[in-house]
Design a protein that fits this description.
Layout: E1 8-13, H1 19-32, H2 43-46, H3 56-63, H4 72-79, E2 95-98, E3 118-125, H5 128-139, H6 143-151, E4 156-157, E5 170-171, H7 175-183, E6 190-194, H8 195-200, H9 202-212, H10 219-228, H11 231-240, H12 262-266, H13 269-285
Parallel strand pairs: 1-2, 1-3, 3-6
Antiparallel strand pairs: 4-5
C-alpha cells in the first residue's frame, strides 16, 4: 500500500446532522464503482467506512494501553497521539465518523483526533432547530431537553463515570462551538457540507464530496449512488433488514423524515428564539435563519 492509499479522512458532525447518510453514500458509490457490482446495499452488512474515532477498542490498540484505566479527562490529551503508529487505519476503511469537537476542555489544546496523515475532514452541518427535533426522536427526549442540549457548553455523548463502554466520552459543547472547532481549525483541510444542500443540491454537493475524498467522481456514478441512497430509499432498506443496527433501543426507526423545516414547525417560538439568540453568529455565518428572520 502506498502512502497515498493510506491517507484517511474524517466525517465530522454534531449528532443527527446527516453523517450516516454521508457514510452510506460513500459505501454505495464505492460499491457501484466495482466491475461486478450487483444487487443492492445491505445497511447492516455493507456500511464499513471505518472505525468511529471514539471507539475504545481502536484507541486501546493504537495507544497500547487499556483506556478503561483512565478517566475521560486523562484520556483526552492522549487521543490525538493515536496517529503515531505507521498504519493508523485498516486498508479500505478510510472515512471515519467523529462526533467529538476538534478539541475538548481536557485535551490541553490538542486535537482529540489524530491529524498525522489525515487528508482532510468533511464537516456536515444542519440547522440546529432541525437537529433538536431529530435528537428528540433518536434519544426519546422531549424538545425542551434537546434545545438545552444544543446550548450546553459541556454537552457530550457517553458522559457517565463508567469507563468500560464500547466508546469513550465525546465532548461536543454547544452546537456553535462544535461547528467552529472544526471549520476554523487550521491543521487539516476541511469541506463544509450543509444538510440542506445535500437535499436541495444533491448532485452538485455529493460530486464535490466525491472529489474531496478522492473517490470515483463520474457524474453519472455519483447520481446513481445518490438515487440509491435517497432518504425514501434508505427507509425501505432499513425495513428490509428489520431495523438499522445503529438505531438505539427505544428509537422507532433510524431513517425517519430527513426533510428540512421540522424545527420551525415543531419547536415553540420561545424555543426557536432561545436557540437563535445563543447561536446567532454561527447560524448567520452559514445562512441559517431564526424565528425573527421570517
Amino acid at each position: 500500500m502506498t502512502d497515498q492509499d493510506n491517507g484517511y479522512w474524517y466525517l465530522a458532525s454534531y449528532p443527527k446532522s446527516g453523517n450516516t447518510w454521508c457514510r452510506v453514500f460513500i459505501t454505495e458509490l464505492l460499491r457501484l464503482s466495482e466491475e461486478d457490482a450487483e444487487g443492492e446495499l445491505n445497511l447492516n452488512q455493507d456500511v464499513e467506512t471505518g472505525s468511529i474515532a471514539s471507539s475504545r477498542h481502536w484507541l486501546d490498540d493504537q495507544l497500547g494501553i487499556n483506556t478503561c484505566d483512565l478517566s475521560f479527562a486523562e484520556l483526552d490529551p492522549l487521543r490525538g497521539r493515536a496517529g503515531e503508529k505507521a498504519w493508523l487505519f485498516a486498508e479500505g476503511e478510510r472515512f471515519h465518523k467523529v462526533h467529538d469537537a476538534f478539541r475538548s476542555p481536557d485535551s490541553m489544546g490538542r486535537p482529540v483526533v489524530s491529524t498525522s496523515g489525515c487528508k482532510g475532514v468533511v464537516y456536515i452541518m444542519r440547522h440546529p432547530e432541525d437537529v433538536a427535533v431529530s435528537l428528540s426522536h433518536f434519544f426519546s427526549w422531549d424538545l425542551a431537553r434537546c434545545v438545552e442540549f444544543l446550548l450546553d457548553p459541556m454537552a457530550g455523548l457517553v458522559m457517565t463515570d463508567r469507563h468500560g463502554g464500547h466508546q469513550v466520552r465525546q465532548y461536543m459543547g454547544r452546537w456553535g462551538q462544535h461547528v467552529i472547532s472544526w471549520v476554523d481549525q487550521q491543521q487539516i483541510p476541511v469541506l463544509v457540507m450543509r444538510y440542506e444542500d445535500m437535499l436541495a443540491k444533491g448532485s452538485e454537493t455529493f460530486l464535490e464530496l466525491a472529489k474531496f475524498l478522492d473517490l470515483p467522481n463520474q457524474p453519472e456514478l455519483v447520481n446513481q449512488a445518490l438515487e440509491n441512497t435517497s432518504i425514501d430509499r434508505l427507509k425501505k432498506l432499513e425495513d428490509q433488514v428489520g431495523g438499522f443496527s445503529e438505531k438505539p433501543e427505544g428509537c422507532e426507526r433510524f431513517f425517519r423524515s430527513g426533510r428540512t423545516g421540522e424545527g420551525a414547525e415543531k419547536l415553540s417560538f420561545e424555543q426557536r428564539q432561545k436557540l437563535a439568540s445563543s447561536l446567532d453568529v454561527v447560524m448567520k455565518r452559514f445562512d441559517y435563519r431564526g424565528p425573527q428572520d421570517g
